[in-house]
Amino acid sequence: MAANEALNALSTTDASNTPADDDVVGATLDDELRSIKANIARAGRFEATATVTAAATLPVTLLSKSLPVDGSVGGSVTLTLPAAATAGNGFFFYVFKAGTQNDVILDGDSAETIDGLTTFTLSAQYSGLFLLSDGSGWSTFRDDRTPIDRTNRGFSLTMGTDPAHDVNFGAGACWDSTNTFFYSVDALTKQFDAIWAVGSAAGGMDVSVSAGFVMAVSDVVHLYAIRKDSDRSGDIIASLSSTWAGVTQPSGYTYGRHIGALSTNASRNIRTFVETGGEVNYGVYVTEVNAEPTTSGVLQLLTTVSLPPNARAWGSVRCAPDDAAVNVAACAVAHTRANGAAVNQHANFYWGDTGAATADFAVGGAMFNVVTDSTQRISWGGYWTGGSPSNFVVTVNVSGFALVDRFAE
Asked: What share of the chain in percent tops pLDDT 70?
């Protein structure tokens, strides 16, 4: 049945349950819920309407109705509620998601809100709730008072069919960076070798870095879930900016939220990765440091790396003296503060052999797990006796990273 036909089927209302009979004027939600239950019991049934499968504006004929909504065929379904004043104080109905795919989005009339939000989303199949009008807005509740999940979640990442440039995003939901609006984004694919355009299989970058290029060399691409002002639909955009305020925002998209990050290589391509639970593991390790320390025993040699700021990174560090004059060799990578000073607590030091070293023999090597500072740097250094810095090389290879909070602004 078409959406309009389905809505026309809602016009028959049980006369035994009219707004005048509801008595839903209690001062508390408990009073209101008890009245609703009593009305349903008096009616003897809670009649279901025909399933709605497309966006629609709901008429004020839903009293004592149960409204199933299925977005499995045409994508997410947005239902615009009647004006609360027209519905009247005590008007209620029940809505639930019948389909397995896509969201059901409830939208208040004009500037009216639902639990203080402009939209309310049902994501899980068979999830449902009552909507209750107080004459000026809407409230939601469930018969069992099950909490509604309004946490930032989802947005898994996988490589697209063009793995150097395309990324597949799993469906997700989040608050915007100001924590004003909660919205969802369907699963989609974005192309980061093209400037942003709405929808899946479309461009994803906010601005080009230079003429003929979109992504930067050996840098970080930050990912944002964005919300369209006019219809509250969601999309994804990428930027070199680590904050929403620094993103060149598409026209009509005022709100966004940071949801993750990826890094690029020297060819301006997305590095091969596998993402699981917010952890990004590289297919091939990335050498971020391959240099001679300047002073023995100093652990504050800061190097900017192609990792996000405030990210936990892991990999291996290797010490390689290239002269037999080096007698004791060690190397380390340490956590850093925002000001760049090494944090000695939890620092990781990896010691090598003592005694004379053979040329080109790596005398120190181990795994590390540290955090970058606010300007994408790590702190590293080496220790030795005998020889000089020109006889000693530290190599830091990064295998992956995870943002300390990928939803943080």
From this structure: 67
Task: Residue 357: count other Cβ atoms within 10 Å of its Cβ.
Answer: 28
Contact 326, 340 (CB under 8 A): no
199 CB-side CA count, 13 A: 3
Is the Cβ–Cβ distance between 8 and 65 less than 8 Å? no
From the list 366, 297, 380, the residue with the least C-alpha distance to 334 is 380
Radius of gyration of the chain (CA): 29
Report the 10 Å Cβ neighbour count for 409. Answer: 15
Q: Where are the alpha helices (DSSP H) in 12-93?
A: 19-22, 29-43, 84-87
- pTM for this prediction: 0.66
| Residues 106 and 120: beta-carbon distance below 8 Å | yes
Co-location of 81 and 159 in the same domain: no
Give pLDDT tens digits for 85-119: 888 888 888 888 877 777 888 888 888 888 878 88
Question: Measured between alpha carbons, how far is 182 from 121 in angstroms, rounded to an integer?
Answer: 9
State pLDDT tens for residues 228-260. 988 778 999 999 999 999 999 999 999 999 999
292 in any annotated domain: yes
DSSP label of 240: S
Q: Which of 271, 306, 340 is the last residue in one of the domains?
A: 271
**Whether residue 227 is found in the same domain as residue 345:** no
Tell me the residue range of the domain where 328 lies: 279-403
Report whether 148 contacts 106 (CB < 8 A).
Answer: no
